[in-house]
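User: What would this chain look like folded?
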Amino acid sequence: MSGTFGEAGKARGRRVAGRAALGTHRRDALTGALLVLPAIALALTFKIVPLLRGIYTSLFLTQLGEAAHWNHFSNYLRMAHDPTVQRAFVNAAKVVATLPVWVVVPLVVALLIFQRTPGWGFFRAVYFMPYTIAPVIVGQVFRELLHAQGPLNELLRALGLHFLALSWLGDKGIALFSLVAVVLWSYFGLGVVTYLAGLGTISDELFDAAALDGAGFFTRMFQIVIPIIFPVMGYWTILCTSGMLVWMFPFIFAMTEGGPGYATMLPEYLVYITAFRFSELGYGTTIGVALFVFVLIFAIFQVRYMYVSGTKRQGA
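Assistant: Here's the prediction, encoded as structure tokens.
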């Protein structure tokens, strides 16, 4: 009899404990949902709703001061045959092709600072400074520096390097890459900070052991640093890929306005001049939707093959 009551008591205890655990789980889930709700609301308000409205607007023939007219997919058909749009996206692909430089340069600088290479204190103080300057101001300054008769070319000529005194922003062959170099100079400090955060997770003993084995700078970078902070590199790569196609607008506006010709025309700037200079809001929105898809394709690829695989590699 006592055994029967004992078993019943244990079962009742298990049920009480189960209800308590379920109640705790529900409270935790509710707390988590309430904490995430503001972020979801912001994303819906400023990301999802504008995106859906943009897709809807792209189906209309809309001009400033005129009523919108349903246009089906005519804007998309026009865009597919528009040489200006094609050139803008070719330029965007060229910009994306410079991605390895965006990823490697901040990593090298961050590792030099992390290892306290001679002069690291100076670089630690100044590397982030370009990122704190407004992009339009950076563009204005470099427009003067890179002018054909600007200070840079005058310095090169004074040093006898006349063959390097190029028309940095006036030559169709190099204007886009000159623009990219300026943007990289402006933003690479953010990448250095990102990498330094990742390097802070690496044990000093690993670097000490590598130094005892005679490993050089690049050996340590490729054999120790990159395998460990690969997810951080993946994050920075994704950020650069999406960012370099939407960070460029103030620099283009201040330095080249898409010229010479269409050499530095990128989709984001084309959206601006189409919608607000030519007053074709519907067609400009269509180009913006195409840019979103363009960036999304690259981002999905990188999330799948860089960030996720890197995280799994670390877990293994």
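Strands lie at 60-61, 69-70. If you want, I can go into more detail on any region.
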